[in-house]
Amino acid sequence: MSDAVLSLQAVDRVYTGIGQPLQVLKAASLDIRPGELVGMVAPSGAGKSTLLHIAGLLEYPDGGDVLVGGQSCAAMDDNGRTGARRDSLGFIYQFHHLLPEFTAQENVALPQMLAGRSKRQANDKAAQLLDSVGLKERMKHRPARLSGGEQQRVAIARAIANDPLVLLADEPTGNLDPGTSAVVFDMLLGLVRDRGMSALIATHNPELAKRMDRVVTLKDGGLVSV
Question: What is the pLDDT, as a whole number, of residue 2?
Fold first, then answer.
């Protein structure tokens, strides 16, 4: 029996619409083990975001299965998938998607409160996490008063706030300048490794990908090692 915390098993995804069906994923399979950081590199349009959406239970595959913490998600209803996402998965996107009307601390506290923590507990942990990403003095600021790099650091703190089994990141530094990108990426890898989390991180930058435990790419709809 696999000890993978996240397992993609022969996942298919076909988009239909005008013209011929487009098969983006074809029997794509991947096991991510506890504490393992996997980089995913592939050209734009190859299906990286689709694969991450399916791995994150945001999108249903047309075939195959996704196992999170050893539990099959193929037959889960929407409520079950929402619970699995909340309890076991963390997400970071290229664009931070912070709630503009809330402070940095409130943005990090909110997912914790949705998971059942009290407001005080959530705010205390949010403060600790924001301190760990160098934003202790900025936690009462709303996103509009933060730089792009600061906003993405808030997004990282938010993603790990519920101690997920697996962190999924889609070009997490792709919207930042090279200098800021390097700083934020260092911070992301450090936090994930310090907490013993697993991660699947899509990036266009092969040099960043090489810093992870192994690298995969999408080829003909399947995942292969680089």
Answer: 63
Calpha distance 164→91 (Å, rounded): 9
pLDDT for 157 equals 93
User: So what's the pLDDT on residue 1?
Assistant: 44
Q: How many separate domains does the chain show?
A: 1
Closest by CA position to 84, among listed 112, 56, 60, 110: 56
Q: Which domain holds residue 72?
A: 6-225
Beta pairing partners, 28:
11
Surface-to-core class of residue 91, CB atoms within 10 Å of its CB (0-12 exposed, 13-18 middle, 19+ buried): buried
Interatomic CA distance for residues 184 and 172, integer angstroms: 9
Provide the 8-state DSSP code for 118: -
Contacts of 156 (CB under 8 A, 6+ apart): 92, 133, 172, 184, 187, 188, 191
Q: How far is CA 45 from CA 4, 40, 117, 206, 211, in A?
A: 27, 13, 39, 17, 24
Query: Does a structural domain hold residue 97?
Result: yes
pLDDT computed for residue 148 by the predictor: 85
Please list the rounded mean pLDDT of every run of 10 residues in the chain (226 residues): 86 85 92 94 85 92 93 88 89 84 96 92 95 91 92 91 92 78 85 91 84 91 90
> Distance (Å, rounded) from C-alpha 214 to C-alpha 38?
5
Structural domain contains residue 112: yes
Q: Which residue has the tokens 């994923």?
A: 25
